[in-house]
Design brief:
The protein is mostly helical. The protein has a domain at 5-85 and 128-136: Winged helix-like DNA-binding domain superfamily/Winged helix DNA-binding domain (Arc Repressor Mutant, subunit A, Orthogonal Bundle). It contains 6 helices and 2 strands. It has a two-stranded antiparallel ribbon with strand order 1-2. The two termini are 36 Å apart.
Length: 142
């Protein structure tokens, strides 16, 4: 079980876009602000663009921009746009066989527990907007 670096990268990139909404940002300019490689930034922003959270324009004056106001973008949307697995992922199965039934019962219990926790995490993320994150980390918005 590990925290999502994709979610963190996405939120960092979105914070850069929200802090200066006057013009599109290149992946290179976002990289300079975050220290994240431009190709990783492009990959994450492409995922966010497919979900309608980011606009992407080509050309010399092109780049990436927020598609919506920060107060309308929820952490849950960002998470679903970039993450293919659940936050609480447990790499086990319910199998254990009849020879060793204890592992199957323990792993089954953890799978059920993590499923419940996942629901709670997702419900909480629906209540947090990008604007909330910006306020919390003290990033002014333009």
């Amino acid at each position: 079980m590990s925290a999502s670096t994709k979610l963190s990268t996405a939120v960092q990139a979105l914070c850069v876009l929200a802090a200066n909404r006057d013009c599109p940002h290149s992946s290179e300019s976002i990289s300079r602000e975050t220290g994240i490689h431009p190709s990783r930034i492009r990959g994450i922003l492409a995922m966010l663009s497919r979900e309608g959270l980011v606009l992407s324009t080509r050309g010399l004056s092109g780049g990436f921009a927020l598609a919506r106001e920060p107060h309308t973008i929820h952490l849950q949307e960002i998470y679903c746009a970039v993450e293919e697995r659940k936050a609480f992922h447990l790499d086990v199965t319910r199998a254990g066989g009849t020879k060793y039934p204890l592992p199957a019962r323990v792993n089954g219990w953890f799978l059920d527990l993590f499923s419940d926790i996942q629901i709670q995490i997702e419900e909480r993320m629906r209540t947090i907007t990008l604007a909330d994150v910006l306020r919390h980390i003290h990033v002014p918005q333009s």
